[in-house]
C-alpha cells in the first residue's frame, strides 16, 4: 500500500501539479481522525465483548462440570435462560463492534492469607513443629484452616508473617538455605507429595494417573496399589489398571477416585507427604486398610501430615494438632491432650470418636461404573473426526449484446468543455457533481445498508444456532458427557462460536462482494470481446489444514494445578512439553496455511497478468471500426483490478471455508442423542408425590450396552415416611441406585420404578426430577455470591466433621419427619435409627430390613459384619442405639401420613450425598 500511494501520487503530480497535495491532504485529514476514533471505539467494544464472552464460557464450564446435578434438579430451563440472556448481550456488543528422607517441619508464628493485607487472615499466628518421620494429624471443624495449612506448605498460600521451615536435619540449622517469602528449605531438592481433598484425575488410564510421568516399577506399583486397596478393583474392570478413567474420573466411583488419587501421591518417593482427608470418601473397612497398611506401615519413617475427620485413628498418630479458626489451639500426643486438655476431650465427645482397634481384612467387591471411551490425556494427536467443507463456485457468464455508442452520444460532455476557452462553466461542474455525486452517495448508502443487513442476518443465525446447540447439550445423555472431554465441549461454545460471530461474517461479506465485482468485470470484458468469456478451469485444490485444539489439556491441567506443582519441576516440565507439542502442531498448521496461501496467491497473480495480456492483445486484433475507444479502456482498466482482487477473493473464500468448519461443528452438536421426553403428555398431579411410596420392580441398569450391569434385579418396597439407609462398600452400586431413580441412564434402565402408583417412565424427565431433589456427592458451586449458591444448592456433608454431621442429621429428622428419606452413607451411625437398611453388594440388594432385624436378630448378616468392622466400642454403641430406637418404636404408634408428604432422596459419600428439599 505505501508503494502504491507513492506511485499514484507521483503520476498525479505530473498531471495536475500542486493540486495533488489538496487531494492527499483532504484524504489524510478525514481518514486519520476517523480511523483513530474507530480504533478506540473498537477497543472499548472488544473489551465489553470479552467480558460477556468470558462470562458465558465460565457458565458453560461450570455447567459441564455439574451437569449431573443440574439434570437431577431439573434446572435445564433456568440455565438455558441465563446462558441465552448472556449470549444475547454478547451478540449486541458484537453487532456494535462488528531422593528420599524424612523432613522436620517448623512453623513459627505464621500468618497467611490468599490476598495480602486482607483481614482477618486465613491462618493466624500458627506455630507447629513436626519431627522427622512423624505422623501428624490435623483435626478441627469445617473451615478451620486445615487445608489452608497444607496449601501453605505447598507454597500456594502466601506467608504474610512468621517463617515456615522444612529441614532434613533433626537438630542442625540449615546452611545455605533457600528463602522465598519467609519459606525456608535446607535442601532445594526436597520433594513433597500431595493428595488433594477433591480427587483430581485426568483423562487417561488408571495406571497413567498413578504413575503421573514417573517410570513404571512393577514391584513398587503393585505394593502401592495393594496398600491402597485397588487390586480388587482392577479385577473387576475389563482392562484392569489400563481402564480409562474418563473425564475427571467419571468412570470410577467416588471411593475409587479417592484411592487412585492417594495411590498417585504414595507412588512418588517424597520427603514429605501431605494427605488432605483421603479417608472420608471410603467406607469404614477400606478406611481402616488405607490407614493401617498405607499411611502407617507403607509410609512408616516418612514425615506425614494427615487431615482427617475420622477421629478413631488419633491414638496411632505421633502428634495431633487441633486447629480452629486458623489457629493451632493445641498440639501433642493423644494421651497428653486427653490428660491436660479438657477442650480436646470435649471435641472427641462432640465428634463421636470411634475405637482404634485393628480390623481384620475382608474382601471388597466393587462394581465399576460406566467405562467411557475417553481421549487419552497424554495422546499426541487429536483423533477426532473433522469434516471438510468445500465451497464450489461455478463460473457463469452472461453474454450481453454488444451495444454501439455513437460519437454524438458519447462526446456531448466533451464538446461542452471544448467550447469553453481555457475554462469550464459552473453548469459543467454542476453536472459532474450531480451525476457523480449521486452515484457516490447512493453507493455509500447501499454499502452501509448492506453491512447492517448482512450482520443482522449473521447475528440472528449465530444466536439461533448457539441456542439450539446449548439446548441439545443440556438434554444430551450422561454418556455424552462421560465420553467427551469438557475441553472439547467448551471449545464449541468458545472458539467455534467466536469464529462464527466475528470471523465468518466479515470473510463471507468480502468473499461475496469480490465475487460479484469479479462477475461484473467479466461481464464488461465479455461485452467488449465475447471470446474472452471462455472460463478458466480450476487447476489447484483447496488446502485444508487441521488445527489441534489444546483446550482439554489446559482445562485438565488447571483443575489439578496444586497436585501438579506438588509433584515438582519434572512433572511441570512434562506438562509444559505436552502443551508445547500441541502448540507446535497448531503453529505448524498455521504456518503451512500462510505459506501455501502466499504461493497460491503468486500463481493467481500470474494467471491474472496472463489474462490481462490476452485481453489487451485481443482488443488490438479486433476490428477498430466497430470498437469504441472508451469501451476498450474500460475493459482494460477493469481487467487490471483482477490482478489483486482475484488473489484476495480466493483468500477470503478459503477463510470462509475454514470458518465454516466451526459452523459445521456447532451443527453437529445440534443433533446429539437426547434423553427421554422432558415434558409429559399426561403430567402427574400437582401434589405428586403426595405419600412417598417407592417400589423397585426387577430393576437392572448399565451405563452402556456393552458394560456389565451396575444394578442387578433390584426388588424393593419403601413405604411412605420410611427413613431408609443405604450402605455398602465403595463401588457396590449405591450411587447407581440414585441414578436409576433419576433416570440418568435411561437407555440402560430395565424394570420399573413406581412412586405413588405412577411409573417414572411414564412421565417426562422434567416433571420427575422437579419433584425429587438431591444433595450431590460432590458439591458444585458457581462463580457467584454465597447467597446465590445457597438458593440453588444444599450443603453436602461429605468431608465434614462429626459435629456438623450431627447438626444436619438433627435437621433431617425434625424437618423431614413425615417424608420418605433415602440416605446413602459410609458412617453407620448416620443411618442407625432408620426404619430400614439396604445393604448393596456388587449391584445386588444383598439385605433389606430394619436395623434391629439385621443387627440384633441376625448377628451373621453383612450389616452386622460392617458394624463389627467399626471397632468394638463403636459396634457396641451402635447396637445399644438400635435396641433403644426399636423399643421407642414399639412403645409409640406410628403417625399417619401427611397429605403434603414429599419424597426426598439423600446420597452422601460420608454422611449424606443427596437430599430432596
From TrEMBL:
<keyword id="KW-0812">Transmembrane</keyword>
<feature type="transmembrane region" description="Helical">
    <location>
        <begin position="599"/>
        <end position="622"/>
    </location>
</feature>
<feature type="transmembrane region" description="Helical">
    <location>
        <begin position="16"/>
        <end position="38"/>
    </location>
</feature>
<dbReference type="InterPro" id="IPR003439">
    <property type="entry name" value="ABC_transporter-like_ATP-bd"/>
</dbReference>
<feature type="transmembrane region" description="Helical">
    <location>
        <begin position="628"/>
        <end position="650"/>
    </location>
</feature>
<dbReference type="InterPro" id="IPR017871">
    <property type="entry name" value="ABC_transporter-like_CS"/>
</dbReference>
<dbReference type="InterPro" id="IPR050173">
    <property type="entry name" value="ABC_transporter_C-like"/>
</dbReference>
<dbReference type="GO" id="GO:0140359">
    <property type="term" value="F:ABC-type transporter activity"/>
</dbReference>
<protein>
    <submittedName>
        <fullName>Uncharacterized protein</fullName>
    </submittedName>
</protein>
<feature type="transmembrane region" description="Helical">
    <location>
        <begin position="511"/>
        <end position="534"/>
    </location>
</feature>
<dbReference type="InterPro" id="IPR027417">
    <property type="entry name" value="P-loop_NTPase"/>
</dbReference>
<feature type="transmembrane region" description="Helical">
    <location>
        <begin position="432"/>
        <end position="453"/>
    </location>
</feature>
<dbReference type="GO" id="GO:0016020">
    <property type="term" value="C:membrane"/>
</dbReference>
<feature type="domain" description="ABC transmembrane type-1">
    <location>
        <begin position="439"/>
        <end position="537"/>
    </location>
</feature>
<dbReference type="Pfam" id="PF00005">
    <property type="entry name" value="ABC_tran"/>
</dbReference>
<dbReference type="Pfam" id="PF00664">
    <property type="entry name" value="ABC_membrane"/>
</dbReference>
<dbReference type="GO" id="GO:0016887">
    <property type="term" value="F:ATP hydrolysis activity"/>
</dbReference>
<keyword id="KW-0472">Membrane</keyword>
<dbReference type="InterPro" id="IPR036640">
    <property type="entry name" value="ABC1_TM_sf"/>
</dbReference>
<dbReference type="GO" id="GO:0005524">
    <property type="term" value="F:ATP binding"/>
</dbReference>
<feature type="domain" description="ABC transmembrane type-1">
    <location>
        <begin position="1"/>
        <end position="103"/>
    </location>
</feature>
<dbReference type="InterPro" id="IPR011527">
    <property type="entry name" value="ABC1_TM_dom"/>
</dbReference>
<keyword id="KW-1133">Transmembrane helix</keyword>
<dbReference type="InterPro" id="IPR044726">
    <property type="entry name" value="ABCC_6TM_D2"/>
</dbReference>
<dbReference type="InterPro" id="IPR003593">
    <property type="entry name" value="AAA+_ATPase"/>
</dbReference>
<keyword id="KW-0547">Nucleotide-binding</keyword>
<feature type="domain" description="ABC transporter">
    <location>
        <begin position="105"/>
        <end position="350"/>
    </location>
</feature>
<keyword id="KW-0067">ATP-binding</keyword>
<keyword id="KW-0813">Transport</keyword>
Amino acid at each position: 500500500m505505501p508503494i502504491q500511494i507513492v506511485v499514484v501520487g507521483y503520476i498525479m503530480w505530473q498531471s495536475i501539479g500542486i493540486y495533488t497535495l489538496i487531494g492527499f491532504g483532504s484524504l489524510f485529514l478525514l481518514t486519520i481522525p476517523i480511523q483513530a476514533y474507530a480504533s478506540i471505539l473498537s477497543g472499548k467494544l472488544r473489551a465489553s465483548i470479552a467480558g460477556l464472552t468470558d462470562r458465558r464460557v465460565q457458565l458453560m464450564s461450570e455447567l459441564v462440570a455439574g451437569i449431573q446435578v443440574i439434570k437431577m434438579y431439573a434446572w435445564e430451563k433456568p440455565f438455558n435462560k441465563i446462558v441465552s440472556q448472556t449470549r444475547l448481550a454478547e451478540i449486541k456488543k458484537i453487532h456494535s463492534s462488528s531422593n528420599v528422607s524424612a523432613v522436620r517441619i517448623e512453623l513459627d508464628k505464621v500468618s497467611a492469607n490468599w490476598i495480602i493485607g486482607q483481614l482477618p487472615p486465613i491462618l493466624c499466628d500458627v506455630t507447629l513443629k513436626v519431627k522427622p518421620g512423624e505422623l501428624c494429624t490435623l483435626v478441627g471443624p469445617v473451615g478451620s484452616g486445615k487445608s489452608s495449612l497444607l496449601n501453605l506448605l505447598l507454597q500456594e498460600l502466601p506467608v504474610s508473617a512468621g517463617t515456615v521451615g522444612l529441614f532434613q536435619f533433626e537438630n542442625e540449622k540449615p546452611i545455605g538455605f533457600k528463602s522465598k517469602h519467609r519459606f525456608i528449605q535446607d535442601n532445594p531438592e526436597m520433594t513433597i507429595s500431595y493428595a488433594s481433598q477433591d480427587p483430581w484425575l485426568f483423562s487417561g488410564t488408571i495406571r497413567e494417573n498413578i504413575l503421573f510421568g514417573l517410570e513404571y516399577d512393577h514391584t513398587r506399583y503393585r505394593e502401592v496399589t495393594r496398600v491402597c486397596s485397588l487390586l480388587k478393583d482392577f479385577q473387576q474392570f475389563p482392562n484392569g489398571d489400563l481402564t480409562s478413567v474418563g473425564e475427571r474420573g467419571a468412570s470410577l466411583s467416588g471411593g475409587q477416585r479417592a484411592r487412585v488419587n492417594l495411590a498417585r501421591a504414595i507412588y512418588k518417593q517424597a520427603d514429605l507427604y501431605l494427605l488432605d482427608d483421603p479417608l472420608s470418601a471410603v467406607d469404614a473397612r477400606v478406611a481402616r486398610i488405607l490407614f493401617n497398611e498405607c499411611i502407617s506401615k507403607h509410609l512408616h519413617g516418612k514425615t506425614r501430615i494427615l487431615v482427617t475427620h475420622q477421629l478413631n485413628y488419633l491414638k496411632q498418630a505421633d502428634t495431633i494438632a487441633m486447629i480452629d479458626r486458623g489457629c493451632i489451639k493445641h498440639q501433642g500426643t493423644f494421651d497428653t491432650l486427653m490428660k491436660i486438655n479438657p477442650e480436646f476431650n470435649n471435641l472427641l465427645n462432640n465428634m463421636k470418636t470411634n475405637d482404634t482397634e485393628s480390623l481384620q481384612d475382608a474382601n471388597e467387591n466393587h462394581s465399576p461404573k460406566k467405562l467411557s471411551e475417553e481421549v487419552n490425556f497424554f495422546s499426541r494427536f487429536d483423533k477426532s473426526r473433522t469434516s471438510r467443507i468445500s465451497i464450489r463456485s461455478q463460473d457463469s457468464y452472461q453474454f450481453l449484446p454488444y451495444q454501439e455508442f455513437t460519437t454524438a452520444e458519447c462526446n456531448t460532455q466533451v464538446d461542452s468543455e471544448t467550447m469553453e476557452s481555457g475554462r469550464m462553466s459552473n453548469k459543467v461542474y454542476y453536472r459532474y457533481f450531480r451525476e457523480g455525486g449521486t452515484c457516490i452517495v447512493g453507493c455509500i448508502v447501499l454499502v452501509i445498508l448492506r453491512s447492517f443487513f448482512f450482520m443482522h442476518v449473521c447475528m440472528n443465525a449465530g444466536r439461533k444456532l448457539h441456542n439450539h446447540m446449548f439446548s441439545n447439550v443440556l438434554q444430551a445423555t450422561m454418556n455424552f458427557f462421560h465420553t467427551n472431554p469438557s475441553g472439547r465441549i467448551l471449545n464449541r461454545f468458545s472458539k467455534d462460536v467466536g469464529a462464527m460471530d466475528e470471523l465468518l461474517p466479515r470473510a463471507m461479506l468480502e468473499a461475496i462482494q469480490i465475487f460479484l465485482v469479479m462477475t461484473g468485470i467479466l461481464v464488461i470484458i465479455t461485452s467488449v470481446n465475447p471470446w474472452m468469456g471462455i472460463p478458466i478451469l480450476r487447476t489447484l485444490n483447496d488446502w485444508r489444514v487441521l488445527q489441534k485444539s489444546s483446550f482439554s489439556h489446559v482445562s485438565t491441567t488447571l483443575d489439578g494445578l496444586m497436585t501438579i506443582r506438588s509433584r515438582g519441576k519434572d512433572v511441570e516440565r512434562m506438562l509444559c512439553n505436552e502443551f508445547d507439542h500441541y502448540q507446535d502442531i497448531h503453529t505448524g498448521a498455521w504456518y503451512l496455511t500462510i505459506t501455501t496461501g502466499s504461493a497460491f496467491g503468486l500463481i493467481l497473480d500470474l494467471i491474472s497478468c496472463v489474462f490481462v495480456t490476452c485481453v489487451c492483445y485481443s482488443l488490438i486484433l479486433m476490428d477498430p471500426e466497430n470498437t469504441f475507444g472508451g469501451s476498450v479502456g474500460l475493459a482494460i482498466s477493469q481487467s487490471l483490478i483482477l490482478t489483486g482482487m482475484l488473489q484476495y477473493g480466493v483468500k477470503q473464500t478459503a477463510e470462509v471455508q475454514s470458518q465454516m468448519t466451526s459452523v459445521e461443528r456447532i451443527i453437529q452438536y445440534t443433533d446429539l442423542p437426547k434423553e427421554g421426553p422432558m415434558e409429559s403428555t399426561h403430567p402427574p398431579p400437582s401434589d405428586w408425590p403426595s405419600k412417598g411410596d417407592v417400589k423397585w420392580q426387577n430393576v437392572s441398569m448399565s451405563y452402556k450396552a456393552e458394560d456389565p450391569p451396575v444394578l442387578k434385579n433390584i426388588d424393593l418396597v419403601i413405604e411412605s415416611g420410611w427413613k431408609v439407609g443405604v450402605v455398602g462398600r465403595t463401588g457396590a452400586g449405591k450411587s447407581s441406585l440414585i441414578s436409576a431413580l433419576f433416570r440418568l441412564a435411561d437407555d440402560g434402565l430395565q424394570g420399573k420404578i413406581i412412586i405413588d402408583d405412577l411409573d417414572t417412565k411414564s412421565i417426562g424427565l422434567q416433571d420427575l426430577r422437579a419433584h425429587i431433589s438431591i444433595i450431590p456427592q460432590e458439591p458444585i458451586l458457581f462463580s457467584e455470591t454465597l447467597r446465590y449458591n445457597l438458593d440453588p444448592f444444599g450443603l453436602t456433608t461429605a468431608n465434614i466433621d462429626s459435629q456438623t454431621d450431627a447438626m444436619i442429621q438433627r435437621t433431617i429428622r425434625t424437618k423431614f419427619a413425615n417424608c420418605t428419606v433415602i440416605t446413602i452413607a459410609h458412617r453407620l451411625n448416620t443411618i442407625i435409627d432408620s426404619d430400614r437398611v439396604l445393604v448393596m453388594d456388587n449391584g445386588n440388594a444383598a439385605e433389606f430390613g430394619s436395623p434391629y432385624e439385621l443387627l440384633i436378630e441376625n448377628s451373621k448378616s453383612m450389616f452386622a459384619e460392617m458394624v463389627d468392622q467399626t471397632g468394638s466400642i463403636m459396634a457396641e454403641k451402635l447396637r445399644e442405639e438400635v435396641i433403644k430406637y426399636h423399643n421407642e418404636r414399639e412403645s409409640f404408634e406410628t403417625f399417619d401420613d401427611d397429605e403434603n408428604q414429599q419424597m426426598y432422596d439423600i446420597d452422601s459419600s460420608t454422611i449424606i450425598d443427596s437430599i430432596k428439599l
